[in-house]
Amino acid sequence: MKKIIWRTILVVLLGIVIFGYVKINLKSNAVYYAKNMPRGEGQEPELVMLIDNLWWVNNPYIEGLKYDIDGTRYIIYKNKSFGNIYADETNYVYLDEKDNFYRFNRRFELLAFLDYKDEKIDINSVDKNKIVSEIKSLVQPVIDKQSEPLINLQWIFNLVYQDEFK
């Protein structure tokens, strides 16, 4: 009877350790996995995963780049920033050097655009690809510094997030 109890405890503890390792691995390597996952057109999973997991991923020192991980998470470079805001759901915001404010959802659809005077502008007048390109140029050095994980769990990451970015 004692052997069964000890084996059960050992199996449960081993399961907890494995689950914990997998969870930490997926969070700390989320950007690497997002870069290498299948995605639908217009989807930017590496940008979403970078901001969502900014506390977990490698935040390398890059001249002029700052990380704000208190509450909302932002990457700031000079007069530009990219981060998230919370309402009923998480939204991602980009503030350019002219203080124009762009808000995206997780599927990276442009939801709102406010100019520097806080006037709402029709989102159809905005070149979304240009804005996404600006965001990528802001955060690309951070994305490039993410290393390949020691144990690659890409298949688990794809199972968890693939449907979200189709």
Description:
- With 166 residues, the protein is of the alpha+beta class.
- It has 5 helices and 6 strands; from the N terminus they run αααββββββαα.
- It has helices spanning 2-28, 30-35, 45-52, 128-144, 154-161, and strands spanning 65-68, 74-77, 80-86, 90-95, 101-104, 110-114.
- Strands 1-2-3-4-5-6 form a 6-stranded antiparallel β-sheet, with helices on one face.
- The longest helix has 27 residues, at 2-28.
- The protein is elongated, with a radius of gyration of 19 Å.
Q: Return the structural class.
A: alpha+beta
* Order of strands across the main sheet: 1-2-3-4-5-6
Number of helices: 5
Helix content: 25-40%
Counting DSSP E segments of at least 2 residues, the number of strands comes to 6
- As a percent range, the share of strand residues is 15-25%
SSE string: HHHEEEEEEHH
Average pLDDT value? Answer: 89
In angstroms, what separates the terminal alpha carbons?
51 Å
Shape, principal axes of CA atoms: elongated
**Uncertain stretches:** none
